[in-house]
Amino acid sequence: MESARLILAAALMIAPMTARAQNAPVQTADPILRGLKEGDFPRLKQLEPNVYAYEELRPSDPGKFKTTVDMIVVTSGGVLVADGQGNPAATRKLVAQIKQLTPLPIKYVVVCSEHEDHTAGNAAFKDAFPDVVFVASPVSQKALAASATPPTEGVADKRTIRLGDTDIEILNLGRAHTGGDLSVYVPGAKVLFMSEIYDHRLFPSLARGYPSEWLSTIKKNQAIDAKWVFGGHGFVDDAATMKRELAAFAAELTAVIAEGRRLHDAGVTCRSVKDCDAVSAANWGPYDGWSERVTQAPGALMRVYQEIDGQLPKQEKSKP
Ligand SMILES: [Zn+2]
How remote is the CA of residue 119 from the centroid of ligand 1, in Å? Predict the structure, then answer.
């Protein structure tokens, strides 16, 4: 037992050192395994001259030490931000960072994921820029209707916003993690932000998601002519790694759905997150060690079962 623990400890120490020697970060969503500390965040990464990724740690969330990532597009006509942070203090920090990039105001905030860890700080955008417009899918508009910053403009399919000199496409490519998922694409810079459709090196968070539709939504995103792809959690590495990792995430989701189907067909039960024999019977293979596997597996199995049994909510008609 003790020797096994020592070997594990040694492996954990060697892995980041080897990765650092090759100048490539170890592929994990866990900041600690990447050798990062709380004080290293937030981190701003310039992907192209006018497009940035902003990585911040989810605050006061013990056991869920991971990043929430936003996209910032700076144009001659102001700023568009895709997704915010999980509380006003964290979003104020994001706003302060944007003010260092440009004197121009934030004109649009696109809610790509309606979940709290991406929206609960949105009041800070409005406090700083009272005229800011919140944009979301019709599903997320409904979910956030009673919030302090309800999205007033909806994207049922696709909308191109021309901001100053830059075209920015808001894309509703299908249900994935929330059911109201949006992507944002900047064609001039070839940067695609997928929010929670792409969670880099995380076990898929499916408890409120749509397993098979999520996969086809990823495929539609992969068909876009992007140089950069990044998502709402995990890390933003170099462009080639991020494309490869998106394919790895899709492969993981495929494997999770297949494992759920195998257990379902074998008659192992999963009635709810708390009443799911499939959890202990599952074999996740290479995905066993992906971040949040332990917390996310029950919800993932439950949703795969619900899909097979035809119990998932139907797609709302988004167009009249
Ligand atoms: Zn999230």
Answer: 9
Tell whether the torsion through CA atoms of 146, 175, 229 and 198 is positive or negative. positive
CA–CA distance, 276 with 24 (Å, rounded to integer): 38
3-state secondary structure 155-216: CCCEEEEEECCEEEEEECCCCCCCCCCCEEEECCCCEEECHHHCECCECCCCCCCCHHHHHH
For the beta carbon of residue 127, count every other beta carbon within 10 angstroms.
14
d(CA 234, CA 133): 27
Type of residue found at 221: N
In angstroms, the Cα distances linking 72 to 53, 185, 233, 310 are 6, 11, 15, 39
Distance from Cα 22 to the centre of ligand 1, integer Å: 30
Q: How far is the CA of 110 from the centre of ligand 1 (A)?
A: 15
CA 266–ligand 1 middle distance (angstroms): 32
Q: What is the pLDDT of residues 15-54, one digit of tens each?
A: 444 444 456 888 999 888 898 888 899 999 999 999 999 9
pTM passes above 0.85:
yes
CA distance 155 to 137: 5
Quote the ligand 1 centre to 18 CA distance (angstroms).
30
115-129 pLDDT, tens digit per residue, is: 999 999 999 999 999
CA of 49 to the centre of ligand 1 (A): 27
Task: Please give the distance, rounded to the nearest whole angstrom, from the Cα atom of residue 6 to the centre of ligand 1.
Answer: 34
- Taking only the tens place, the pLDDT of each residue in 184-213 is 999 999 999 999 999 999 999 999 999 999
